[in-house]
Amino acid sequence: MKHLFLLLLLPAILQAQSPRLVLSTATTDESYLRAVYVLNHYLVQITGTPPETLRSDKKLRARPLIYVGPNPALKKYGLSVPAHLPDDAVYLQGRDNVFVVAGGGSNGPEYAACALLELLGCRQYSPVDSFIPRIPDLRLPDYPARLDTPAFPYRELWYQPATDVDWARWHRLKTRPEKKAEWGLFVHTFHSLCSTEMYFSEHPEYFSWNGAQYSPAQLCLSNDTVKQIVIESLRERMASNPGAQYWSVSQNDNYDYCRCARCAASDQRYGSPAGTLLAFVNDVAAAFPDKTISTLAYQYTRRAPRGIRPARNVSVCLCSIECNRGLPIAEGCPDFARDVAEWSALTDNLMIWDYVVQFRSYLSPFPNWHTLQPNLQLFQQHRVRMIFEQGSGSDRSELCDMRAYLLAKLMWNPQANVDSILNDFGQGYYGEAWPAVQAYVHELTENMLAGDKQLTIYNIPQNEPFLSFEYLPGYISSVNAGRELIKPDSVLENHLGAILVNLLFAMSENLKNDSIRLPQMMRDTANLAHSMAVFVEACDRVGFRNLHENGYSPQQYALDYMAYIRKTIAVSGSRSSAVTLRHPASPTYAGGRAEELTNRRIGETDYRFNWLGFEGQDMVATTSVTGDSVRIVRVSFLQDQQSWVFFPEAVQIEISNDGVNFQTVHREQIVLKPEGKKAVHTVAVDLGAARPARYVRITAVNAKVCPNWHGCNGNPCWIFADEIVVL
């Protein structure tokens, strides 16, 4: 049957020849010249022969012919190009070994050239993984006239593959140079437009009144002087960058908005702080009618206001940061679906900032595949014009090539067949191992959905039920089964190796919680150090440079992991036991369980794991002691000022024989000062000799509110405490 098929194709093969590119004599458009360049670049690799580029085909009889752009000669072949093509539109038509590619705007012609190349079998899976078929005698396909326009006119994908200009153009996305040219300022710009350094000391009234004091966190949007400062600051910036179209006038990245009497009255009038923001931005936009002023609907401004609309030249960027990624937005985050509907009713100039990666752990498996299409369909349904999908930026992350490939296709057409896209990618990128990878992704997703269906963009593997030891060995077996199917190939090995690195990272993190396996690691630190070295080498081989958005290298992770084990060994002999709390801890972290303070597990620099949190109140914890004496007492506290987590102002350590009468054995004052980095501070006392005691009480004095120098001063702050060690 195979040979019969080739015989049937023989007449077509015999008449096929190397293609010629025909560009109209009237065409000087740079976009069509780029399209010719792209076609030349790929066709010479496909056919082995450089294609001719002609300005006329009057004396031409041989085919195949590829017309690049409109041309009067198309009529004789029964082909045509519409008189008007929308921006980015792709137009293709082919008949009898003659083809025409055309497009709208500055990018459409190049997009059309890439679309034809995809029809011929070319693929760009990632910036370094592509497929170009070898067809010495190329015959162009018959193709009915088709005009293809994007669902979203603005499509930006902040993912490592899309940072490559050629890959982004192939997949019809905004490139980084285009973004830089179009945007003068991009989000969280209040600080740069009316800076704290310049104005706060002399004019605190320009900034947020939080009910107790002025805070430099945000601007007072009812202050007319602030408005004029912002307008003049923009005017200066626009003069130095006149080509930029988009200028962001948007809140800083915190919750401390102004609650002065005028702003509060405005918020009440509009039903949301978004109304006060929008009134301010509309006035700024009126000063620049030829520019687009962008602002955020983010966190406290997410809910659409009433009684006000964005001005014609105002673009609103609605952000989905709080949403559960375990379910489509319409099901898992109905309040955000409501916000999309309400904002789209107010403006046709709506942008969605969506989040599609695990920001706390770039390597952690993140099964959100089933949500990508319905979310984009929701945005399309509400006539959203601009999409910004935020992945891991210039860093590689879990399955980033596959997720970027799928997102690029869906951002162009949310109705596309997801299975077809993933199969097309998987067969080319993973080869014979694709069914095993496909099974792994399916199993991962099903286990997540069988649990609590919660998937947040800031979490750690220890907190994800679908990444427990119940499932991890099965995932690894599935991927290893795929490895057995591939022939020796370093590229495919690395593609599968990246998945195994993701799973090994999840396993390493879960070991910190495992009461059986953790002691085994503590007894064999030499083997653990070797495993960490292998992990670092594997990350380097497959391209994982950072483990989360703040730039945390695998090398530093390995060092910190070994330090964690050493600290865990050091506390393993602690004699602290049952704990009682005078004030309950927040149930958000470690379930508020007091025993987190004596479970022999060390907190690192992430308050989500092995820390007990207290918001706006002191910690008074009393632990009983195994035995009847105490010599050393230690307790640790976390600082993460960006998240409103501070060291306590003072820590007192007391001991007692009866649990009623306590004697102070140590008291330490801690000076709170601005520090950007996360840190752990241990308060310790060595009594020199064992002293009779059966109870230890730790009192940590919370500052109650963020300090005056902090961007969110006056708001309730946190203290986080960890292991109370008694020796």
Number of strands: 26
Low-confidence stretches: 1-16
Question: How large is the radius of gyration?
Answer: 31 Å
Q: What fraction of residues sit in β-strands?
A: 15-25%
> And the CATH topology of the domain at 573-726?
Jelly Rolls
**SS class:** alpha/beta
The overall average pLDDT, rounded, is 93
Task: For the largest sheet, list the strands in their spatial order.
Answer: 9-17-16-15-14-13-10
What CATH architecture label of the domain at 573-726 applies?
A: Sandwich
Distance between the termini: 81 Å
Return the CATH class of the domain at 573-726. Mainly Beta
Estimate percent helicity: 25-40%
Biggest β-sheet description? 7 strands, parallel
Given the C-alpha coordinates, what overall shape results?
globular
Number of H/I helices: 21
